[in-house]
Amino acid sequence: MPGVSEEQVRQARQVDLLSYLQHNEPHELIKFGRSEYRMKTHGSLVISKGMFYWNRGGFGGRSAIDYLIKVRGMGFVDAVQAILGARASPTFSLPTENIEQPTPINAEFELPETVQFPSKATAYLQRRGISPKIISRCIELGIIAETKKYQNVMFIGRDEEGEARFACLRGTRDNFKLDVFGSRKMYSFVIPAVDPDSRHLACFESPIDALSHATLGERSGWKWDGHRLSLGGTSPMAVISFLARNQHITRVMLHLDNDEAGFISARRIKTELRQDSRFKHINISINPPRGANDYNEVLLRTITAEREQKQRSQHTPTL
Fold first, then answer.
1. Are 193 and 295 in a shared domain?
2. How far apart are CA 257 and CA 213, in angstroms?
3. 137: in domain
4. Residue 283 backbone dihedrals phi, psi, to 5 degrees
């Protein structure tokens, strides 16, 4: 199936809803009795003895896939990715020496070993146009690192206590992409605002786009200071969890890709947030990048245009 492998689908189908929520969204669970649970967001949804039934919707099921598709309105591929905590396997072929071995779905999350000086990761990010100053800040915060094996860039998501709960890998030499298995997407990669009390949140599909947006702000002298969150795709899980943990946020800007999938996903996320009583006070806007597919494309075009302008100025004869 395009986007996910048969093995990923098989693993995802084995995960029941209670296990999924306990692992990814424990704040949603309310225990009733010895073996029954309900949800904060969907109060009429009951989970009992490995099954769930949504009274409001008039249907039930067992697997987390059933819940994500029928209740949350996700597409099948997004649902599989959300359950496994892994982005879709790339459709291109990968060098065999750079394939991280998957671990069982119930394996304890563990960060790969990293190097002290992430020179290859830094060089890769600079080739993508990312500001050295922003790269250095993220390394100091412990949210960007370089794996010792294969020298992949690693984007790390941390919980309220600073513990790593999520990590995604990107190849520095090829198009390798993979989330570390056991990652909890509710703690996806986020670049915190300089002011920790900032009430603004900008959401992107990938860490590179979040970093690109920050770099564009630095280059342009923007005064905007907010948190920048990578959704790790188009699932609403990361933003819902972030807002639940940061209830002071009053504005959310959805900067998903400028394509049909991005538009559909942004509208779906906006609708889901508006329907959640916890987020009624939040102003939500959809702001795709102008004239480009994503913010890294905007950044690279900006850098190229500035370079060409500088070259023209140097060759313009003075009168």
1. yes
2. 13
3. yes
4. -85, 125
User: Is residue 57 one of the residues assigned to a domain?
Assistant: yes
Beta carbons within 8 Å of 162's beta carbon, 6+ residues apart: 142
User: Residue 309 falls within a domain, yes or no?
Assistant: no
Give 313: exposed, middle or buried? Use CB within 10 Å, 0-12, 13-18, 19+.
exposed
Are 42 and 114 members of one domain?
no
Both tokens assigned to 43: 């109060």
Say if 42 falls within a structural domain.
yes
* Residue 157 shares a structural domain with residue 270: yes
Element (H, E) at 229: strand 227-230
pLDDT tens-digit map of 18-60:
888 888 778 778 887 667 888 877 777 888 877 887 766 667 7
Token code pair at residue 152? 């992949």
User: Residue 221 and residue 77: Cα distance in Å, rounded?
Assistant: 39
The token duo for 173 is 């030499």
Q: What is the pTM of this model?
A: 0.70
**Following CA atoms 289, 292, 296, 300 in sequence, which dihedral angle do they give, to the nearest 10 degrees?**
-130
Residue 280, pLDDT above cutoff 90: yes
Helix axes 76-84, 6-13, angle to 10 degrees: 70
Q: What is the largest CA-CA distance in the chain?
A: 87
